[in-house]
Predict the 3D structure of the following.
Amino acid sequence: MPLHLMEHPEDVSVVRLPGGEDPAFDWNTGPLASLTRTADETSVVCATASVPRGSRTEGPFRAVEVAGPLDFSAVGVFAEILAPLVDAQISVLGLSTFDTDWVLVPTGRREDAAAAWRRAGFVITPSTLTGGRS
């Protein structure tokens, strides 16, 4: 069964803060919000619209979610997802949650990434269906 990837419509960015610093802005926004701390840095993934001006950032990215939940014993899921992007020369950021994996694709390369994944046999859909249905 091919992997099913769901692209979220909102742009996200990665904000870099000094190690141990708490974000002084509303970062818990967007389709994916993540706070990661190391001794050297604090990284925040949040909706691009929430990033304060003047922050050190990368992005915007489009968040692509692997339809899950994935089993913790699954082997090679990220390798399978990333291989078509390596071949297409698309640099991404990968994250995992308890239930699934996420790939942050530069917004300007999202169509290239989707085409590469489709060529590899993946199913790509929007995260929500729209179009007037209730």
Observations:
- The chain has a mean pLDDT of 90.
- The helical segments are 77-87, 110-119.
